[in-house]
Amino acid sequence: MKDLIIKNGRIIDPSADRDETADLYVVGGSVSNHAPGDGCEVIDAQGLIVAPGLIDIHVHLREPGQIQKETIESGSRAAAAGGFTSIVCMPNTDPPADNPSTITLITDRIRDTAHVNVYPTGAITKKLMGDEMAPIGSMVQTGIVAITDDGHCVQNHELMRRAVEYARMFDLAVFDHCQDYNMVGNGVMHEGYWSTVLGLAGWPRTGEEIMVARNILLADLCQTRIHCQHLSSAGSVRLLRDARARGVQITGEICPHHIALTDELVSAFDTNYKMNPPLREPEDVEALIEGVADGAITILASDHAPHAFFEKEVEFDRAPFGILGLETELALFLTVLLHQKKAIDLNRLITLYTINPAALTRLPKGTLQPGSDADVTLIDPDLDWIFRKEDSFSRSRNTPFDGWKLKGRAVRTIVGGKTVWELGKDRK
Amino acid sequence: MNTSPASSSRNVPKPATWHRKDLLGIRELERREIETILDTAAAFKTVGSRDIKKVPALRGKTMVNFFVEPSTRTRTSFELAAFRLSADVVNISAADSSLQKGETLKDTALNLQALHADIIVLRHSSAGAPKFLAERLDASIVNAGDGAHEHPTQALLDVFTIRERLGKIAGLKVAIVGDILFSRVARSNIWALKKLGAEVTLVGPSTLVPRAFEEMGVSVARHIDDILASADIINLLRIQHERQRKEYFPSLSEYVRFFGLTKARAEKLKPGCLVMHPGPINRGVEIDSDIADGPQSVILDQVTNGLAVRMAVLYLCSTVSRKTR
Fold it and tell me: What is the C-alpha separation between B181 and A86, in angstroms, rounded?
């Protein structure tokens, strides 16, 4: 691996409150104050943003057990192509990642096949069933960075309290997929006008908000941090804003589809518009964007959820939830939050993808401070391009964004000083 | 009373206002398309009263009655309609289809297409299933009920019956009573009645008539007594208390107390008010037994008219194949 000089880019490093045009030096795979010697590679970053490598704390890599959908290899390659140097994968694999042996299998596969840094999470409860606590401490020892039953939600508040209190002993973040099973029932889309017209079972906002409120109460009670995943409703944002103002250690993330799409799109019965939580109404979209702008929402993520074509090509209410995200999320957030809505600036957007997720998971990432790993994402925030699903590195094609005109994207992804993906040199 | 475009049903001309391969729902139809179906049905209705109840309109065509969700009434009606049009008919139910063996709807449908089915009539528990097939097959797809989404031929036979009895639809006040939330019949009726100019009021327990329905351009009454004196038509939907996953009201007796069309309530109905029901009826629940058999009831007219409407739908859709579009 050659040392690097990344020349003339606009370095935006929120961890150092830095925003200036300068050269970035990489020596021995780490960021350095000192220029490398002869023989180093010079990357011209004129007109580009030089950002700390972006982090996505919510992806499904489907390995082990569901490799028709995705593998750690294919999913991490998609991450690289999306500008992500670190990703956090969810435990709802087959078998679920609820014990140290499975976590070790996953970390072995990561070591052997991953293109970027991949960090596993462990389940909160055994088999994600919500009944018994998983061996959280043993999984911490084998490398998990958080616990979550994502895809599922622990319904028993007392068990959740114990898990949260137990996780606190390891300074471990608890992520929660907020869904009250009784309220949501067999809901497959947002409960509102369109679910009424289409005769599809509704998934009401309240089904999310009740669990967000639960998590706020538990985070307060246990004096530890809980992170609410993929928030979709205006009420969740209000709850989070109020709780954070009181100093409760509660955080929330949003995914691009929840601000780029609304429930009306389900009217074509296209299963690429079926996700959990569901697409909601324009007023929710506005509230989520407002939450990002005012600090109620502090993390951006994809909920990258690959499913094989044949799995999605079924009746709407029988299709699995979820869509791809890694290769479109940065572009969608740039397009919607930055260019269209002008809700946040580049500094803030990079903050939500670097130091905030790093602080939550305690990962020593998301920074360009000297001595840190040279994980760098080069971004052209104004590049006009069209996403084509056939160009995806994922094993799946379940995306509603095929053919979308987007503005801005990563153009080069560097992990530990090594370029793992570069725009235009990405033929499969 | 309706002048039909096809007084001789032996050689029915193709109406200029029909261009659809499929009938998936009422929501996407224009008013004139609904009227085309009703006019065509009026012409076909005469076939049923002849000695020889058959016209050759669909001779050589194959219709598959694909009923993934059980039904006797609708399936039989479509089957008889196809016989009267001289089509060949195959019935497939969920129990004897390969769906039981784990085959997907897509693959089952592609197999039907490979057998050169011209028309597939689909009843399915999933909303949108007919659209799913229509997008993938050359055959005409007729929705015979998809989940809680639409049941277009039921709505068409309902408005046909109203028009036949009262001579018009526009301006009439129609009350739809019962389980609206889970009813595809209610949804298709709302669209058809609104497009034809009727005023629709929904009546039922507030758990089964969510407020979102008001955004469809209808009003909601909380008490059946509020609509008895004003309704020109009262359409009672079947209550399926026992089949619902959750409880939406405490008991059938409490339902009857608040929403059943009892004799006492029927006496307050406007003279000439039509009493309708898509069937099968629960005597003594949504409707008193005597009222169901009484002079205001048009329940059996609905059944008879269903045949004519389905003949019209099968005929119209089959004249528009994917290849000729």
Answer: 46
For CA atoms B181, B77, B141, A271, give the dihedral sign: positive
Q: Which of A196, A271, A309 to mutate to test the interface with B (most CBs of B within 10 A)?
A: A196
Within 100-159 of A, beta carbons closer than 8 Å to B belong to none
Mean pLDDT of B15-25: 87
Cβ distance B212 to A316 less than 8 Å, yes or no, reads no
Q: Which residue has the higher pLDDT, B12 or A201?
A: A201
* Closest C-alpha among B178, B27, B123 to residue A193: B27
How high is the pLDDT of residue B322? 53
CB A410 within 8 A of CB A83: yes
Mind listing the pLDDT tens digit for each residue in A237-285?
A: 999 999 999 999 999 999 999 999 999 999 999 999 999 999 999 999 9
Task: Enumerate residues 81 to 110 of chain B having a beta carbon within 8 A of any beta carbon in chain A.
Answer: 104-106
Q: Which three-class secondary structure string do you get for chain B?
A: CCCCCCCCHHHCCCCCCCCCCCECCCCCCCHHHHHHHHHHHHHHHHHHHCCCCCCCCCCCCEEEEEECCCCCHHHHHHHHHHHHCCCEEEEEEHHHCHHHHCCCHHHHHHHHHHCCCCEEEEEECCCCHHHHHHCCCCCEEEEEEECCCECHHHHHHHHHHHHHHHCCCCCCEEEEECCCCCCHHHHHHHHHHHHCCCEEEEECCCCCCCHHHHHHCCEEECCHHHCCCCCCEEEECCCCHHHCCCCCCCCHHHHHHHHCECHHHHCCCCCCCEEECCCCCCECCCECHHHHHCCCECHHHHHHHHHHHHHHHHHHHHCCCCCCC
Task: Provide the percentage of residues in chain A whose pLDDT is more than 90.
Answer: 98
Task: Please state the rounded mean pLDDT for residues B194-214.
Answer: 96
Q: CB–CB of A83/A377 below 8 Å?
A: yes
| pLDDT-above-90 percentage for chain B | 75
| Tokens of residue A71, six digits | 């593998």
Q: Is the pLDDT of residue A319 over 70?
A: yes
pLDDT for the residue B5: 41
Q: What global pTM score does this model have? A: 0.94
- Amino acid at the residue B289: S
Q: What is the pLDDT of residue B321?
A: 62
Q: CB A197 to CB B131 under 8 A? A: no
3-state helix, strand, coil in chain A (%, to 5): 35, 25, 40
Report the amino acid identity of residue B324: T
pLDDT band of residue B100 (cuts 50, 70, 90) is: confident
* Longest CA pairwise span in chain A (Å): 68
Q: Is the peptide bond before A277 cis (omega within 30 degrees of 0)?
A: yes
Of B106, B127, B212, the CB nearest to A200: B127
- For residues B260 and A224, give the distance between their C-alpha atoms in angstroms, rounded to a whole number: 55
Label residues B144-162 b or e (16+ Cβ within 10 Å = b): bbbbbbbbbbbbbbbbbbb
Q: In this predicted complex, what is the ipTM?
A: 0.91
Contact B144, B63 (CB under 8 A): no
Give the single-character DSSP code of A162: H
- Asked if residues A163 and A136 have their Cβ atoms less than 8 Å apart, the reply is yes
Q: How many CA atoms lie within 13 A of A95 on its CB side?
A: 11
Burial class, A365, CB count within 10 angstroms (exposed 0-12 / middle 13-18 / buried 19+): buried
pLDDT-above-70 percentage for chain B: 91
pLDDT digits (tens, 9 = 90+) for B101-142: 778 899 988 888 898 999 999 999 999 999 999 999 999 999
Please name the residues between 311 and 350 in chain A that touch chain B, using a CB distance below 8 Å.
Answer: 313-318
Q: What is the mean pLDDT of residues A400-405?
A: 98
User: According to the model, what pLDDT value does residue B94 have?
Assistant: 75
B280: preceding bond cis by omega (within 30 degrees):
yes
pLDDT for residue B240 is more than 80? no
